[in-house]
Amino acid sequence: MASPHTSPYEIWSAFGANELTANNINQILGNVHDDLWVVSACVDRVVNDTAVQHTLLTLGVSRTDRVVERCTDIVALTSPSLPGSKSNRDTLLSHFQNAPTDALLCYLRSVLLRRLDRLNTYIEMEKEFSKNMEVGMDDVIEEWEDDPWADGNVTSSSKPTPQSKSTEPPPITLSDFLQNDLLWSACELAAAEAFDALLILLKKHTVELWPCRFRVQDCIPEHIHPSQNPSVFPTLDVSSDRELIPAPERWRQEQDFSELQDTQDAIKASCPELPVITDSDKSIEYTPTPDPLTAEELSAWYRNRVNLIMSSTGMVDVALALVQHGASQGIPLLDELGEELSLLSRLVYDAPQENGIEDDWTLDRWYSMDPITVVRAYLAHASPKSLPPYISHLVLPYLYVLEAKAERAGRPDPTLHTRILYEYILTTSLENAAAIFEASKPTLPTAQRTIKDDEAMVRVALACLYGSDSLNQWPTMSSIFECLPVWNVPQDEEDDIGEAADTTVASLGAFVTPSTHQPHCTAKDLLVFFQPLPFSSLSRALDILDVHLESGEILSRWSVPAPLRWFLQSSGNVNEQRAWANKMARRAGGKEDKLDGLEDWEWLFSDMRKLTGNGDPSARGAFCLLSKDEINSIFLSGMLSTGNFSVAKTMLHGPHHKLKLNPETIETVCLASSREFYDNASSGNYKFGDMKLAYECLQVPQPSENIVKEKDFIEATSRICSFNVSSAPGITISPIEIRLTKDKLSLISRVVSSSSDAYKHTQVILDLGYKLGYRHDTVAEVKILAMLADTALQAEDFACAYENSERMVETVASLRNTSPSGVDDTRVREASEVCWIACFQLGRQPEFPDLAKKMTLLGHALEFCPPDKIHDVLTAWRKSEIQDIGYRKERLNQRRSGGQTMAAPRKMNSMPSNVASSLRARLHDFHMPSPPLLSTPDAAALASRTFKSVAANFPFAVGHRGRSHASDADGRTSPRSESSRRTDGEDVSSQASRVFSKGIGWLIGADEEL
After folding, report:
1. N or C: which end of the chain has fewer CB within 10 A?
2. What is the rounded distance in angstroms from the CA atom of residue 660 to the CA atom of residue 666?
């Protein structure tokens, strides 16, 4: 307790703001007689207790009553004129200058009265604060009782106990409300969602807050539903067509004397250093709007508010509720916006959504979407089963709204809703389209059908199916077909109708075929073609569609699916149908879809025959332009390409053969298939791989000359490859290279040159030539024998060379005798040319020791050579004759003298193969005696002229012993090194040749000769 000697001023200063009570205030300040000090003390103290604050304010106002009465009397006595006159201000100014205390008290009184009004407002708002707190507590209790995780036996002690007085602080305290700007307080209440308290504040202080009303409304959170604060938003006064100004509900209907403008002006003029009592530095900047807005401005404000809500929250329901509220208040130009928001709200809240994924929608995005995009958005996540109901409840109402808008805009479009719906059907998946057609069956009531017009339904279905690129959804496409109507067309109209439909199908086939100006035809484009067709033509088109669907299922069954539009493209293109038939016959028995046996192949054959439509092009089957015989040939070719030769024989020659073809066709197909295997073979060995298939394929048809020739060629190919003939260094010749070689004799040349002893197997090489196609070609046989003789000559195997030469002479002589034209025959001249050159080459060889055989060969050369070459041959003959005469004389002289007879020149039965180098060296220095012999061609020149492409390219060497200028030069310049190389390589070469010959002897049939 304060000391009795303590002054009231000290006692008041000692009390804190929270320690003051109504009794303390009256006891302490009631004993102070200084009104100015008491009033200042009441202004200085601001507390959060409404009762204490009310005591302070009422006490302070009561201590200024005498000043107001005094001032009022002075004004009344001195200036009895109307308030607001200049004389009143002058009187007050004079009085306040003489009594500055009265001026200060009047100023403080106005502050106290303003605070008293705010206090009364706060007391009203505080009641709303408590209501909101109670509602919030009830919601918590209700949520707790509905907790699904709570135990059924929860005791009452586990539930929250509502308190008699909530400890939650109010949105704004009394001290802040009294001291701060009213706009700041209003914005705080709006942001705190205390809308009932905000409404009280706006009503009680309308004059102060009216210019800044839109700043307060901007503070309301965008997610707040307008139903929570309907009175806060602006409304329209229909009578004035402007914003409605609410009637003020002030606490005092008339201003106090201290609040009058004259009083305030006089106070400020008399007291230049008047203390400024600022409530707070918490203020908010804003652009004042003192005048009410027009109807258009109000509409713009609502639109801006909607855009703000959409951009910040995306809550379409809140934006729609705001527009509906504005429309209910008479705000114009909001109907169209409300219409758009209503459609958008259906998309956001009623349309099916993907689980866990939320899409952000804004008005800008909505306005940027065209109708078909909106329809796709409505149905984006709908299942096929739920699609028709969503179309009825979401899509069609939206399309009807678009029609209404177009009509209001003066652009009526009664087909808009069907056009957009058909476009969606044409661009959606086949599963969704099937669900829509299922809901549009003609058997359903018209009101329940999604597509109500039968003809339109057929047109859309045709465009949808023929515009699809699907290759595996044939059951779905068939289900669409089954939903379409069936019409009975009169027989007399059927011909004309079929012709019109066929013409349309033909034009469609040309239209769907890709081109430079239209690479891809869409289903929407196809719908244009079906629009002019009447129902009768549509019925014919449906019949064709039925055939195409069946054909598509068959092609898909055999792993060669084609889009439905392909049947239009190929309807008049026999090459396209033939290519697809080949594809079907070949792929069906491939690795990915291998057929198990005869039954599967017969099933495939039956399907291929079915696709021809029994040879009727009007049936529009996949292969309707192909005849049955052509299909049979294609089927046989495809079956042979898979290597199923046993099945092919059964179907061709079995007791119940179903594949009927004439022998010539069978032979042609088998030859083509065999050559296909041959061309694709990587190895020439016909014991395995594709070459084996090529050989076995020729066993399917009956034997014929062509079949035997092809078999021989395959065997020849295998034999050529067994010699490791190379097409390039390190690369073995391939079968396709053998077939593409124009001059097959060059292959024999390469075979002979590839082995050191191949020339010894004369019959084997001749058989190889026969199998290459020269079986009855005597000229070719002569050339082959000439090759063998020349190769034996290069190997200095004169005995073998002589045998081949003699056989060659016999062959040419036989040809001359059998030729009707005799020596004038071109073939005879060509064979004779080859024969005499080969005999001349061997007969003039100085290394050939058998003089009798040499003279025999030169005699044959004289027999077959042309007249202009007789001199050359005779020159060589004379040389051999002189040598023979010398031998004869020597033997005769020895006989006469009784001496031992001189042995004939020794024959070289065995000679190293590399001795050809010494022979070349000797022949290099050998010159024929007479000048005419200068015109005699050497072996290479004669071969180039006579053998053409065969002997010209023939390497006159065996193995590595090639005749080249470089080797001859080396032999001349370094005989020692040449001899050493021959010695070093002789054993290795001979051993390798023997091993190789034994290795391939079984293949060329020369075991006995080896």
Report:
1. N
2. 9
CB 310 within 8 A of CB 366: no
Q: Distance (Å, rounded) from C-alpha 98 to C-alpha 92? A: 10
Are 835 and 806 spatial neighbours (Cβ–Cβ below 8 Å)?
no
Q: Which two tokens stand for residue 632?
A: 């049979």
Tokens of 967: 């080797």
CA angle (437 as vertex; 433, 438 as ends), nearest 5: 115
Q: State residue 259's pLDDT score.
A: 85
- Give the Cα separation of 931 and 615 in Å (integer): 80
Q: How far apart are CA 22 and CA 401, in angstroms?
A: 68
Q: What is the DSSP string of 297-328?
A: HHHHHHHHHHHHHHHHT--HHHHHHHHHHHHH
Grouping H, G, I as helix, E, B as strand and the rest as coil, residue 1006 is coil
Question: For residue range 495-514, what is the model confidence (pLDDT) as tens digits?
Answer: 555 566 667 667 777 777 77
Q: What angle do CA 902, 907, 911 make, to 5 degrees?
A: 140
- Would you state the structure tokens that stand for residue 41, as one six-digit string? 């003390």
Q: Render 759-787 in DSSP notation, one character per residue.
A: GG-HHHHHHHHIIIIITT-HHHHHHHHHH
What is residue 79's predicted lDDT score, i.e. its pLDDT? 61
- Three-state SS letters, 704-743: CHHHHHHHHHHHHHHHHHHCCCEEECCEECCHHHHHHCCC
Residue ranges for the chain with pLDDT beneath 50: 1, 135-141, 143-145, 147-166, 901-1010
Query: Tokens 């109670």 belong to which residue?
Result: 134
Q: How far is it, in rounded angstroms, from Cα 749 to Cα 87?
A: 144
Give me the residues paired with residue 294 across strands.
Answer: 242
Q: pTM score, two decimals?
A: 0.68
Question: Using only C-alpha atoms, what is the Rg of the chain?
Answer: 60
Q: How far is the C-alpha of 582 from the C-alpha of 577, rounded, in Å?
A: 9
CB atoms within 10 A of CB 530: 21
Placement of tokens 């709200």 in the chain: 345
Token pair of 798 as six digits: 């004169």
Please list the alpha-helical segments (H only) found in 897-964: 916-924, 939-946
State both tokens at 510. 């040309």
State the DSSP string of 109-159.
HHHHHHHHHHHHHHHHHHHHHHHHHHHHHHHHHHHHHT-TTS-TT--GGGS
Place of tokens 């009303």: 213
